[in-house]
User: Which sequence fits this backbone?
C-alpha cells in the first residue's frame, strides 16, 4: 500500500517517539525512500566500448573507479553513465536496482493532550521539529494536519465556471501543482480537451479577470476557469 501512496503518514504514539526510526527503517527495507528525490543518474547499455562516465557535478562521495565498479557488479560492462547528482553508493545501487519508490512523508505525533510542553521539547530531540502534534481522540489540531497534508502533496484547487453560470466554490477540481489547463480538461473527462479551444481564467495566475489563455497555461491555487469549446 505504501509503495502506491502519494503520501506516507508516520503516526507515532507520544510516549514512543523513537519508533520513528523503526518505521523509516522498515520503509527503507521495502524499497521506499521517503522525502527524497530520485537520483539524477542515467545508465545506458551498449555492446562494446567499456564504461564511459560523464558528470555535471563534482563527485565527493564516490570516485569514478567506484562508480564503474558498482555498475559492473550489476551486470553493465559497456555503456554510458551520466551523473547530474553527487550521490552515495547506496543511491547508485537504488538506480541500478530500478524498483525503488520515492514518496513524500509526514510525521504525526498523536496523544499530545496527555503530555506537557516540557515533554514535547524532549520528544523533539528524537523526531526533530518537522511534525504535526495531534490528539485523534480529542480532535486536536486536525485542521492543522489537513493543512500540512495539503501543503506536502502540493495540490491546487481549480474552481470551474460555466460560461453562463457562477463558479463552483463548493467542489473544486483538485490537481497537482504544475498541471496545465489541458490536464484540467482531462480531469473533467478524458476526451473533453478534444473540443476545447481556449479558457477564460480569473485568479492569481493571470493579469486580469477573465483573461483568455491557451490550454497549455499553468493555473495556480484558487484560479477560476471556464473552458471554452
Assistant:
Amino acid at each position: 500500500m505504501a509503495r502506491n501512496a502519494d503520501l506516507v503518514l508516520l503516526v507515532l504514539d507520544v510516549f514512543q517517539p523513537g519508533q520513528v526510526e523503526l518505521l523509516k527503517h522498515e520503509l527503507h527495507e521495502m524499497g521506499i525512500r521517503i522525502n527524497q528525490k530520485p537520483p539524477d543518474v542515467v545508465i545506458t547499455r551498449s555492446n562494446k566500448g567499456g564504461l564511459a562516465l560523464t558528470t555535471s557535478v563534482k563527485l565527493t562521495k564516490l570516485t569514478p573507479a567506484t562508480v564503474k565498479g558498482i555498475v559492473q557488479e550489476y551486470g553493465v560492462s559497456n555503456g554510458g553513465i551520466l551523473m547530474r547528482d553527487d550521490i552515495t553508493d547506496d543511491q547508485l545501487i537504488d538506480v541500478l536496482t530500478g524498483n525503488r519508490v520515492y514518496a513524500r512523508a509526514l510525521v504525526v505525533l498523536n496523544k499530545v493532550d496527555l503530555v506537557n510542553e516540557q515533554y514535547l521539547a524532549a520528544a523533539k530531540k528524537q523526531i526533530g521539529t518537522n511534525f504535526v502534534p495531534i490528539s485523534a481522540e480529542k480532535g486536536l489540531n486536525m485542521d492543522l494536519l489537513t493543512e500540512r497534508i495539503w501543503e506536502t502533496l502540493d495540490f491546487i484547487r481549480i474552481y470551474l465556471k460555466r460560461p453562463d453560470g457562477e463558479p463552483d466554490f463548493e467542489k473544486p477540481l483538485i490537481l497537482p501543482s504544475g498541471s496545465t489547463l489541458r490536464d484540467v480538461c482531462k480531469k473533467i473527462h478524458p476526451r473533453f480537451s478534444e473540443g476545447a479551444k481556449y479558457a477564460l481564467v480569473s485568479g492569481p495566475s493571470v493579469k486580469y479577470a477573465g483573461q483568455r489563455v491557451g490550454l497549455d497555461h499553468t493555473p495556480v491555487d484558487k484560479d477560476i476557469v471556464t473552458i471554452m469549446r
